[in-house]
Amino acid sequence: MQSNNETKGIWKVIGASSVGTLIEWYDFYIFGSLATVIASQFFPKTNPTAALLSTLATFAAGFIVRPFGALVFGRLGDLIGRKHTFLLTLIIMGGSTFAIGLVPGYDSIGFAAPIIVLALRLLQGLALGGEYGGAATYVAEHSPAHKRGYYTSWIQTTATLGLFVSLGVILITRHSLDADAVKSVAKFNEWGWRIPFLVSIILVIVSIYIRLKMNESPLFAKLKAEGKTSVNPLKESFAHKGNLKMVLIALFGATMGQGVVWYTGQFYAQSFIENVCKVDFDQSRTILIWAILFGTPFFVVFGTLSDKIGRKWIMLAGMLLAIVSYNTLFGTLLNTADVKNKTEITAQKNISITLSAVTNTGDSLRKTVTKSFYTDGMVMTETKTDTVYADATKTISKPAVKINKLINSSDYWTMVWIVFIMIVYVTMVYGPIAAFLVEMFPTKIRYTSMSLPYHIGNGVFGGLTPFIATLLTTIYTDNKLVGLQYPIIIAALCLVIGTLYVSNKIDENVND
Which of 70, 150, 434, 487 could form a Cys-Cys staple with 136, CB 3.0–4.6 A? Predict the structure, then answer.
């Protein structure tokens, strides 16, 4: 039984760890949440699809370097302590995010813009590679064995809540720049997108203040006092056959599948709704916000359940459900927004054409806006932009087409429900995993050993999901669900390995 003082102490630990980790996830994911806007700012506008893919690739680069951050900061965490290491990661993350908000656009400094942004994304990835392992280890080493899944599940909520906060800040900023909605959106796309990056520095300063008041993990402090800390955490983690085996089991039997389920159920779901289903910017974000709001408590539900029945089967069940239902769930999203399933009110169709002169030429830019109305209340706006040349021998350019669908209330909540189901899968694979990883490795090399498989599985396999899935849809244009093959295959492979090699035993002797 825990005393009241011990209970209060663990909640202070969870609070201090969670606030900082949430802010780091906010900083990291705000880039992905603004991918379409950033694509127009830091890459040439001549090919919007290529610009979006380049932005997603830059976004993914932050994930690819996370394992290197896990090695660098994991080693520091096992050598000098948990507290100071993830204080350092917070400073690096906050500074990099703030700096992205200051980088001039492509129109101002050319290709230097995406190069600078890429460098800052790499710093973000390195910082996050050291953050999660430190926070999870710190909380777990304060937790009693019979409640380790419950207490560490609160840390697990921070990744999703960081995404939630980033979406909320974006929407608030987008609608507060001007009383006129159209002008407000234009200002946001032009310069207002920088505000969510810049204001994060305030949150980071508050979190640094909180973390400075934290004490070192009692288990690490004891090891240090007894002179039993690891001399070479990297060597002990990866050169010793027994520990390396556990690292590989953690990666291929748990975190790899967990990573693709996490990013498919949240990031790719939102990208799919916006870029494939063509649902309105605001609606695509608020759909995810509602789904996250309803789904987040399940992190704690499944973390708590894992204390009673073990971690393994909860995580593998989440992967299995994702594998067998993703095609149906994403297909329903697609069909819900498909105008082929709706009846147009042709009498209300509205077409407007505007011409604007192209500077220093006799050419004109023609914008054709077609607004279509449907009996179920959906409104679709199709904007075609092309160039009309003064020289009659030139062919009119192929129009750039942008489609925006404002869906009705019933379809909106249908999409919320579908994304909520996918987020429940996320909570199943992610809620118990911090306790699962902590229990696999000894205290003196825990930070290093657990961080690497987590960040390869979650960061590389998972973080690449939006990019690879979007890339597949641009290659195989006739199949809008083809992008799901990547997460399904990875999750299936992990399910098989996890079933065969992962133990369901809860380690009662972590705190030694």
Answer: 434
